[in-house]
Amino acid sequence: MQTKKYFDPFLMLTVFCSFVVVAFILFPLIEMVTQPSLQDLKEALQDRDVRRSIWLSVYTSGMAALISFFIGTPFAYVLARKAFPGKKLVESVIDLPIMIPHPVVGIAILGVAGKNHWLGEMMHQVGIQIMGTTTGIVAVLTFVGLPFYVNSVKTGFESIPRRLENVSRSLGASMSGTFFRITFPLAWRAMLVGIIMCAARAISEFGAIVIVAYHPMIAPVMIYERFTAYGLKYSQPVAVWLILVCLLLFLLLRVVSLPKKEAA
Amino acid sequence: MIRIEQLRIELPGFVLDDIALSIQDGEFFALLGPTGAGKTLILEAIAGVTPITSGRIRVKGRDVTKLDPEQRGIGIVYQDYALFPHLSVYENITYGLRYHKTDPKESKKWVGWLMEQLALQPLANRSIQHLSGGEKQRVSLSRALAVNPSVLLLDEPLSALDPNFREDIRDVLKKLHQEVGITFLMVTHDFAEALFLGERTAILNHGSIEQVGTVADVFEHPATPFVAEFVGMKNVFPATFDDARCMVGDLTLELESAPGLSEGHLAIRPEDVIVRKEAFSSNGVRVLEGKVIGVTDRGPYHEVLVKRGEVTLTAMISKSDLLGLALSRNTDVHIGIRASSLHVF
Predict the structure, then answer these.
(1) ipTM for the complex?
(2) B166: Cα within 13 Å, side-chain hemisphere
(3) Does A10 touch chain B (CB under 8 A)?
(4) Is residue B185 within 8 Å of B202, Cβ to Cβ?
(5) By percentage, how much of chain B surpasses pLDDT 90?
(6) Looking at the partner chain, which of A166, A175, A264 has a beta carbon nearest the beta carbon of B83?
(7) d(Cα B200, Cα B209) in Å, to the nearest integer?
(8) Which of A47, B15, B41, B118 could cross-link B138 (Cys pair, CB 3.0–4.6 Å)?
């Protein structure tokens, strides 16, 4: 006769680990969000520097996502659809910004953007300055966010049956016609997810930004500065506002990304 | 006419080698072969969506080898339909019209006729997500024909369909081919489909063509052991010949005429092997004694394995015959084979 097993040790372990993971992520965040008083939050919001830094974070991250969309989409398409020598190497290169320590990214960008480098000299001549500018912040955020966009969109393109494109070509559409009439409309959701991922990564960047552009101050730099200068209590309201704005934006983007239609 | 010359496609772990085919204008040609033989690869090479290693492809006298798919004027229908999921039935069908300089009125009339022939008018505004397999395949056919291609390539168009839709689409294909009069090239692994639809056929195996001919000719006179087995001849044996005598192991059979070979193969269709419990004689039938070594239920018929000396023959008999004969393992039987049923190559 079989006895019913009420407490499977493995199931208990999975439930316990799940609880630990969720608590590990949520507990500090909830604590941080609930610790500042409404008065602290109100005062932080009335501070023009805080509003400006949060706006700058959102704006530069959005710009990084937009740039990633324009230059990353064709690149992701090539990676998804074409076979070429060294493809694996190129795919590894795209992942490098994810692995490199953040300050190293800042140093690397400054290395080529400085006047001592031919590229930096060239940029200086056409009026592009990286050090301590919004342009520099966007450059850094694009550098760190691009892999997230490319990988997400590449997966999206790969999920579209190649046969749809074959049929479109056989019906008379060129490669670009096929891309805009078939591939793009079917991959837009992957692109939106890529934009969210890229912007999310960009908005959280700190290590590379403090090296390339401490000023103008984005929200993570301001939070850090207030923490080192005035302590935890003074930095928390800014952090809460940054989290709330990000949540709202990402929620909006998620809502507009409807369920994907399947290929017939 | 489609003319394929010395086509070679190299892929990791697979080579399609020295493919040569000529398909006449307006012909319904069936490219047959088992899964993995390279049939779809040939189709996609003709359509221009698979790069080829070497060779030449001509369509209606025009060398299309280096042309982009959109410049070839060749339609393609896949077994999984490949319909555009974000477009309606009508939008799918009219997708290619904007790329073809035709009179809009004529195009509309042509599309209307196609939709009527394929009973798609009531579905025009439907999302393709809500269609049955048969309806999807009819949309796919209609879409490919809407742009008036010079050739229509069909990649196993019946394979993904339920049996009831399969017959429907099979009839539709035959009717459409007769009415639109363009060249149809269909790949399939099902010889019955080729028998019903195809005028000529080529049998492909491991990336090479084994035999080309009319469907009836290939069915009646297979040229290789693979083709013989592929067209349903389950009894294929290496044989030696002495004038009109054919020797398979310890079995000697009289042929209708001398094959002009000393060595080759003998093939007999299982339905041509007569099984009786009692001895019998009939004009032109060679009767042998044997023992049943296995009976397998194949659904509509039974497969009976009869061992006669060194040779094991497969016979196909109906369920009622099986019950009437009360055949089971180790039953002694008499088997009869007509000389006209012996195929040698």
Answers:
(1) 0.86
(2) 12
(3) no
(4) no
(5) 77
(6) A264
(7) 14
(8) B118
Quick one: pLDDT at residue A223? Answer: 95
Q: Is B258 helix (H, G, I), strand (E, B) or coil?
A: coil
Instruction: State which amino acid sits at residue B338.
Output: R
| In the block, residue with structure tokens 């697979």 | B14
Q: Give CA–CA dist A263/A162, Å, rounded.
A: 11
- Can you list the domains of chain B with their CATH numbers? 2-220 (3.40.50.300), 239-344 (2.40.50.100)
Give the residue ranges of chain A where pLDDT is below 50. 262
Instruction: Kindly state the tokens that stand for B9.
Output: 């496609």
> Which DSSP string do the residues of B126-186 spell out, in sequence order?
SBGGG--HHHHHHHHHHHHHHT--SEEEEESTTTTS-HHHHHHHHHHHHHHHHHH--EEEE
Tokens of residue B12, six digits: 């990791």
Report how far apart the first and last C-alpha atoms of chain A are (Å, whole number).
49
Quick count: other Cβ atoms within 10 Å of Cβ B239?
23
Give the count of Cβ contacts less than 8 A between chain A and B. 82
Is-contact B141 B111, C-beta < 8 A?
A: no
- The pLDDT score that the predictor gives to residue B30 is 96
Angle at B80 between CA B75 and CA B85, to 5 degrees: 85
Question: CB under 8 Å to A81, separation ≥6 — which residues?
Answer: A157, A162, A165
Query: What is the rounded distance in angstroms from the CA atom of residue B226 to the CA atom of residue B231?
Result: 9
Angle in degrees, CA A158, A164, A165, rounded to 5: 80
| Cα pseudo-dihedral B148, B150, B153, B157, rounded to 10 | 40
Bridge partners, A223 (sequence order): none
How far apart are the C-alpha atoms of B91 and B143, rounded to whole Å? 9
Triad B336, B338, B344: Cα angle to 5°? 120
Would you say the C-alpha torsion B8, B13, B14, B17 has a positive or negative sign?
positive
Q: From the CA of B71, how many Å to the nearest CA of chain A?
A: 7
pTM: 0.84
* CB < 8 Å to A164, chain B: 82, 84
Chain A contacts in chain B segment 87-126 (CB below 8 A): 95-96, 98-100
- One-letter amino acid at A263 equals A
End-to-end C-alpha distance for chain B, whole angstroms: 30
